[in-house]
């Protein structure tokens, strides 16, 4: 049992930190604490990423509409996530440092397919699914040299910003966040902020750190829009309900009572 416990703990820390905590009982080692915190955050983010875009998917399905969701933004976001996932996988970075991108890629691909499907093009939705699957295989199946992935990762920041901020522009133009899920937006913001720390701690890769920093900025813009338009929509509903309430409050004329002899 002790061996199984040790094996489990070694997924979260290296041998040196294990000895510090469980042999020497040195619980105040700063480096080991940061490493353990990073691992815990990493696996926590991965667990959260399994469901992070499910509220968005269910909202589209419930309304049978993808109104207000920019396909251009979704596709750019999906491309950036996929390149980041392939770059991390091929580099051999710890799964705790990038595993959430696998689940985010799958859910983002589903959203893109749904935007096409509910936009009236089921054939395009099917073609997109096949094409994206082929791209993932080419990037992660050993068909793409690492140097090309590095170049693609370098373009990730402008692509990511363009994709996210184009969604922000769509929100501004529509005066609403449409079918965007507030839960999804805030979970993405929290995840990208936490990933800055885990990237510094686990990989030290400057490209990954810059990418997550840019993602955090773009996610913050959209999260602030969700709050702003949420309040605006409430005010519009309140103003629209006032005249209706006033009209309902107008008393109907009483029917004349019949006189009895």
Report on this model:
With 261 residues, the protein is mainly α. The protein folds into 3 domains: 1-47, no CATH class; 51-144, no CATH class; 169-227. 79% of the residues lie in helices and 0% in strands. The protein contains 12 helices and no strands. The chain has helices at residues 2-12, 15-22, 30-49, 54-63, 71-91, 95-98, 100-118, 122-140, 146-154, 156-174, 182-202, 206-249.
User: Please, how many domains?
Assistant: 3
**How large is the share of residues in beta strands?**
under 5%
The overall strand count is 0
Helical stretch tally: 12
> What's the order of the H and E elements?
HHHHHHHHHHHH
Blueprint (SSEs and pairs):
Layout lengths: L1 H11 L2 H8 L7 H20 L4 H10 L7 H21 L3 H4 L1 H19 L3 H19 L5 H9 L1 H19 L7 H21 L3 H44 L12
Helix pairs in contact: 3-7, 3-11, 4-7, 5-7, 5-9, 5-10, 7-8, 10-12, 11-12
